[in-house]
Amino acid sequence: MTVLPMGGPGVPGRPEAGRAMTAMPVVGLVCGVVATAVAHGAHALGAGTVISGLMGIAAVLALTRGMHVDALADTADGLGSYAGPDRALEIMRSGSVGPMGAAVLVLVLLAEVAALGALVASGAWLAPIAAFVLSRCLPVVQLRRGVPAASATGFGAMVAGSQSRAAVVAVGLISAAAGAGLAGSGWTATLSAGTWWTPVVGAAIGLAFYAAAAGFARHAVRRLGGVNGDVLGAGIEAGAAAALVAAVILA
């Protein structure tokens, strides 16, 4: 799920793909560290809040080949068309970006850049990293047993229904922990000040995002007949933006 060279030769099968999706929080940790470090480095050089956020998000886009932003635009166009399953999937596979996809993409990227820049300007490290970890937890609940693939081919067909109940529960707990981490360095300050509820609210937000991802998967099943790679990527990108914004509010 990044450009980093991992694994051996050949095409991975369903078991390997399923394990890779279970390990997505680790990918979020790598992306979060890269984005936060680049943004802090730019800010230390005097780049300013907006440019620092932009550099951090650009680093993640390079690390992930921009696959999730492409998925977000495709999903917005497909679901926004209100067409039937076959036509909606055709729109998502077309490779072009329509007005709905372009608008959603711009808004989400603006939110990510502004939120990451604000967090870095405040000196936060933990909060933005936690936001990226949380965003990469979301696909696990969307790939729980019983959720079908939207088509018989493609990445969705390889990973749909691959996550056991134990994996879904375990990653749900990681989501709660990452949500608590959205409070960032405010953890110690809020506890000492008696406002213990800030990390608790963050944990609740993490679980709420996890539940929302499950709901989005159910919506995809109703509209498309199942989930695919675009649905998963859209959830990751939108989740990252929402988590970064939540971190700004909590911090």
Biggest sheet overview: none
Instruction: State the low-pLDDT regions, or none.
Output: none
Name the helix and strand elements from N-terminus to C-terminus, one letter apiece: HHHHHHHHHHHH
Q: Can you tell me the overall shape?
A: globular
Helix content: over 70%
Radius of gyration: 18 Å
The number of helical runs is 12
Strand-pairing-aware structural class: mainly alpha
Note the quaternary state here.
single chain
Distance between the termini: 29 Å
Chain-averaged pLDDT: 92
Q: Roughly what fraction of the amino acids lie in strands?
A: under 5%
| Number of strand segments | 0
Feature tags:
mainly alpha, globular, 12 helices, 251 residues
Characterize this entry briefly.
The chain is mostly helical.
Overview of this protein structure:
With 251 residues, this protein is mostly helical. Helix content is 75%, strand content 0%. It is built from twelve helices and no strands. The protein has helices spanning 14-22, 24-44, 49-63, 67-80, 85-93, 99-121, 126-142, 155-159, 165-181, 186-192, 197-224, 229-250. Helix 2 (24-44) runs antiparallel to helix 3 and helix 11 packs antiparallel against helix 12 (229-250). The longest helix has 28 residues, at 197-224. The protein is globular and about 50 Å long. The protein starts with 13 loop residues before the first helix and ends with a helix. The mean pLDDT is 92.
